[in-house]
Amino acid sequence: MLGRSIIVVAGVLALLLGGHRLLPELGGFTPVLESLLPWVGAAVPLLLAGALATRSWRATAATLLPAAVWAAMFGPALLRTPPGGPSDISVATLNVGVTNADSARAVRALAKGRDLVALQELTDGGPAAKALDDRFRYRYRVATVGLWSRFPIVEAHKADIGLDWTRALRAVVDTPKGRLTVYVMHLASARPGRTAQRDRTLAHARRIVDGDDSPRLLLMGDLNTATTDRKRSGLVPPLADAQQEAGSGFGFTWPSSFPVTRPDHILYRGLTATGAGVEPAEGSDHRAAVATLRLR
Length: 296
Hints:
This protein is 33% helix and 26% strand. It has helices spanning 2-19, 29-35, 43-54, 57-79, 103-111, 127-133, 196-211, 242-246; strands at 89-95, 116-120, 138-142, 145-149, 153-158, 168-175, 178-186, 217-222, 240-241, 264-269, 271-279, 288-295. Helix 1 packs parallel to helix 4 (57-79), helix 3 packs antiparallel against helix 4 and helix 5 packs parallel to helix 6.
């Protein structure tokens, strides 16, 4: 009986991993499940242990199926080596956390060696913005999002992502290699059964990207959509993902104490990612996403 159960569960896991995009959205529950998809593989060792206990070769062989599917899907991310090479800019994005009393310390550490820093969940007169104002000559902030730059910001304005309040901006930065258009966005949150508003903001973000003819474009922020979430496919492509192109591992950023998913992203076109990773951020419930890029 146990052996048959293991075979059935192994088959379901393999189908869930390989065919998750074929599942109905179930009122927004499936995209949330997809956000945690890499963790489905944690069930494989348990199944294998059970199969070995039954001494059933069929059950043991069945557990290898979801293991193979998981390895095909996520193995490259774990084995990837950052391409390295020369880079022109170093960037970071962080949701500092609206209640974070240590946000100044967090962004000071994050700013070291960085050319562009994007922040979300800023508060009026809060310590994070003040700490970066002391370190960067150029900055633009609107409502709860902001961008700090070592290069001149020659154009900046708020961006509409379909919310009743402003949580996005567009800026043009004049780098030594030419101008770079930068978006900082904090899309609507996604919860089990409540993803409609997040999906609308994702659609707005895609329309913004499609309508922007800048040859070099960088989009950073808390997009509230994981790398494995079906809805993120609206942005990647046409944009590339720094973590997927030049990072090692999954790059999980949330929650900071034990990250299980990646809502924070650095997306781009007209650039080449040379490295990407994640850094801790004092007091925030997110970790920071960082990357180095070369302008084409």
